[in-house]
Amino acid sequence: MKKQEVTLKLSLIPCILLIALLVLNVGIFGDEATSGPCQVALLISSIIGGIIGHTKLGLSYREIERKAIHSIVLAMEAIIILLIVGATIALWIQGGIVPSIIYYGVQILTAKSFPIVACIICSIVSLAIGSSWSTMGTIGVALMGIGKALGYSEPLIAGAIISGAYLGDKMSPLSDTTNLAPAVSGTNLFLHIKNMLSTTIPAYTLTLIIFLCIGLFSNIHSQDIHQTDDIVRGLEQNFFIHWFFFIVPITVIILAMRRTPAIPALTVGCLLGGLLAFLFQNGYPENIAQIPSFISKNYKNIIHVAYHGYTLESGIPILDELLSTGGMEKMFSTISLIIMAMLFGGVMEATGMLQKIAAAILNYVHSAGGLMASTVISCILFNIFAAEQYLAIVITGRMYRASYNARHLDMRNLSRTLEDGATVTSVLVPWNTCGAFASSVLGVSTFYYLPFCFFNWITPIISILMSMMNYNIIPADKQDDEKEVSKE
To answer: How far is C-alpha 330 from the chain's CA centre?
Structure first.
């Protein structure tokens, strides 16, 4: 079959259909939309995109299928991490790690300071380890427990955690996206980080001010002090609590700081959680004869919890809801969402429709500032339709690099806008791998926590505004004294 040129009109058909189905699903199913309806919407849109590619563009089915499957393969690491994190959360609860963090946290942190402190803690951890996923899956889970114990709403707590976690994802030299953006653009890592300060500092400052005001003007402390006492008492009755258990998340953080890949680092944390559950949370055999049955029973229990999740029946409703979570099984809905999202993105890229939409945006660019603003917008669109922040960075970077060269702009401009648009907004899309991960780990629907992820949506707004005002646009011939650094 003879290939035809892809048009913008054809390219928009799957996208418009997807948006319409997603809006319909959210309106009908609410926060349950990502537990099946959105997966079906993505599948239908993928099929329509494939039909257009085959019947209108002359592409073979096998060619579209091969590229779509390759797109799914790109998400396999994320899927494995999701399964490990699901088991880790359950075993960290069963092992007393999360209960110990909550126990000490609710007694040290005040309700007034919690939102800003939670954001800062996640910022420090993510800057140190360079991973928003590891931050949310470890410290973030514990902070969710503390915040709920203090009486804050789950979407607000998740927003504070995500805002802090993505500061490190965007700025840490250990972060994969922080390294990927300058690599795609062709600039130096540390020059890239320095250039991002112009948008990151204002966005992060505004974020901290907002969380500070939320805490200061809340009346939660006076309302929920008795609830906090009930939680502390319930933790003491159902778990062996000890500060020594903090060594497990600290170990994971140290491994991440030493550039240990996410999968082995999280696996170590998972195994340590199971070990603590075995040694400290299930009692001890009364005599030597009971040792074999004791080992068998507890091993079976730990494996069951790792797969199905932890269930607490303490008689305290808020504590039972707080700690009855985790497990690999709980991640299956998210995994299916990621697979369908990557399928749709793969079909759109294989047919050339994704590239056509981005290229159409360039037709309306008439200035350097407009080019940078369109880069941010394109990254957001790629996060929505390609469902993966790495694809958003790589594809957008490749497509816009020639335009930056043509306008004699330094590649630091491109690398910064890639991060301002792609990295921080990925978690705001429910079917993006990052949004799906955060929603599953923190237990809050993306649509609910989105308004409270202040850093994540303030950053692209500031980036677009600064670009349109021609602020901090570096010409290609302005190398300053930093030229020597870029040669290293």
So the answer is: 17
